[in-house]
Predict the 3D structure of the following.
Amino acid sequence: MEWSYETAEELVAALRAGAVTSVELTDEAIARIERDDEVINAICVRDFDRARAAAREADRARARGEDRPLLGVPVTVKESYNVAGLATTWGMPPHRDHLPAEDAVQVSRVKAAGAVVLGKTNVPLGLQDIQSFNNIYGTTTNPWDPARTPGGSSGGSAAALASGFGALSIGSDIAGSLRTPAHFCGVYAHKPTLGLAAARGMVPPAEPALPVDLDLAVVGPMARSARDLTLLLDVMAGPDPLTHGVAHRLALPPARHERLRDFRVLVLDEHPLIATGSAVRAGVNRVADALVDGGARVRRHSSLLPELTEAATLYMQLLISGSVARFPTDSYEQLQIRAAGLSADDRSLDAVRLRAMVSSHRDWMVANNRRELHRHGWRQLFAEFDAVVCPITPTPAFPHDHHPNPLERRIDIDGVEYPYLDQLVWAGLATMPGLPATAVPAGRSPEGLPVGVQLIGPMFEDRTPLRLAELLERETGGFTAPAGAVNARPGR
């Protein structure tokens, strides 16, 4: 039997039943990577010898009667996580030989849960792109169309999952970096509530792996099924033991509802700052139809929704000001000159980004205070709704675009060009206030490319969008393997 496209939940059941061993699963995964990854280029750092050793130990542990949540399940890890003895470069050539001595806290957690780490997945330079290419490891391609990107920055992880290279992966998200690759590759991902999962050791190679309260970024799970997201999130959730004394899990509240017909859902498919492509709009409508058919209460408008233009502006201010904080002084001075030359009437997102690059701490505090008003608006909205369904980006996966300056790139939306970075506004809708958001497959475009949507939920109620994702999976079919995938089970 071919196991590569089974879910982690199915693999755990098979391992418990003695239908397969971890060594067999690991050897099969390694063989698949060696056969198929030359074109995909998802696994940029291989760790096959240690994976086989871990698989043997998992089988011995099970023979002793041990049972852990992921015992014996092959998984991958985003390159940006420290793994002891493996290169962690973030795609930056000066750090190609950086070898951390300790595992990131999330790598420690998945290993403690019994997972077998096959290797690390590719990322863009500095994790700062919606694609996954760099001068160390090259370009990761989309398993559905090698001419297109798998997304970024967790693009290698999404491509690996769609290719059957392990059942789970761990990634990170500040600008859709979990959700966009899931959308582009037809898999699942969950951006947890800000602060839910400790991120120590998911750190640039020049910096110490210390606990830090991140402003926007989170770490989270990726999988080929909604239930697997919950399985992995339960392993990942919890504060850092260095700051909380002991490693304990947070007691997340249960999902608000168990049945589709009990959910109250707001569906959005239009943004004032960017068009929604027809393929993505169709995906949103497919999910909306499934909700209606399942008896859910669906609305298309609400006066409670925080204002989308200001939400996007605040997100760009917070995102960009943090991203450029380490710019060299001479670069910063040039940006100041450019920003001073902007018209006071220019409120475009390009202008917002440029001003944010040279913003003061006072500017940040003003934006942060406005963010708190938006958070309160979301609390009021989630008193009337349980989830919000909306796009992740305006289009399916786009062709590789390696223009060295992202500010000069363009994204084609049904024949009309928009600034490349403007497509981040949908991802930022959940990121700016720190809300949980689950990326789910929503069918395919007329060209046969995957289309996904995100389910945004209330803060620290991650189980609500995750449960809705499970219920929708039954209605919409969930993950399907790319055309031409070898030995993929029908429906997978």
Q: What stands out?
A: The chain has a mean pLDDT of 95. The CA atoms of residues 398 and 431 lie 22 Å apart. The chain is about 35% helix and 15% strand. The radius of gyration is 21 Å.
